[in-house]
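The data layer described in this paper is built around a simple, fixed record for each protein. We quote a single record here, exactly as it is kept in our systems:
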Amino acid sequence: MKFLSKVKTFFKNLSTLARPSPELRSALGAILSKVGIHINAKNALQVTAVFACVRLISESIASLPLFLYRKTDTGKEKATDLPLYGVLHDVPNPETDSFQFWQAFVANMLVYGRGYAEIVRNNAGQVVQLWNITTPFVRVQRNSETQELEYVVTPSGAEQFTLRKDQIFRVDWFSMDALNAFHPLELAQNAIGLGEAAEEFAADYFKNGTNAGGFITYPEGMTDEQVESFQKQFRGKYEGLSNSARLIFLEQGSQFQKASNTPEESQMLETRKFQVEESARFYNVPLHMIGDLDHATFSNIEQMSLNFVIYTLRPYLVRIERAIVAQLLTPLDQQALYTKFSVDALLRGSYLTRMQGYAQARQNGWMNANEIRDLEDMDSIPDELGGNAYLANSSLRSIAALAAAPAESTKSGGDKNGS
């Protein structure tokens, strides 16, 4: 009996591709959702709402200029003389431009929960190249001797190699302990699985469903041969999209009863639409930015776009900026250098609103003409023509100027004539 029990246990626990164990699912990078669909990066991105969110966020961040600044006594200046400036802003490596690099890096964060890049330094320890590493190729472990983190990389079709902590640029997604990032596909497995199931149902419905959608009854019984012949003829004439809405002719007193299984009645369309909202909610993306305009109006669409920059993109931008300072700069450089994404173009309002804001800034003396022209991507005005001059309304005076003015002058607000 013990032997038979062991055999039953063996077959009960047997892991196959059709019914994988948790360990096998983990090895294959697949996650089983409650609807019974194994979720991985490929089929998750086949859900159009998920793909739209990942594409929108990753491409939006990749399109933003990333600058390396040097702190100065009066503010800041671009550190264009350092190799890292060109790596971050222009060309991370000989085979990838900055847009391609950051789009792939952020996409890995959004799908796998973490982005990786290999760091290449020159003899002076300066970063001269960054190379993307697809997240599933990397396994994190601690060195048995030093207890330092190290990264075992197993590229597809290439030899395995190990990188030290200082050779890896890493940015994590949402985390609870600052060391282990949540896996987005695990958190959203049921929402993504339901979206995948709804798409499969819709595809099967229109592929295999007869558009007549009903039942045929006969007053008298039919033989098996008659049933088979009738089914063959009926399917040939009335099944499939090409035969949609055709008239059905019945004989021998048969009757047709329509079945209530239309997409609307089965709530298929509502389910698919709700899954779009679920994906947008998970990635904190406004619906109108992934093609759902039901809740967008001309009065609120601009504000929702600004909210996207502030509440969706900004946390990712800060993560990357902080990681660059912590991992790519030496402790000495961290005191003098910092990085910043420029989001000015995304935060701009309408043309009229911008011009009104510039006019107030110019008249109140806290922006000059060249600062405004720089924001509008226009050439500077020479200094001798007043491009860098700060102006202010004649009626506005500083507290220091008022304090230094004669007493009889200050009584009238600074006007000696009292007018």
Notes: The longest helix spans residues 301-328. The chain has four domains: 1-32, 38-209+259-347, 214-258, 350-410. DSSP finds 17 helices and 13 strands in the chain.
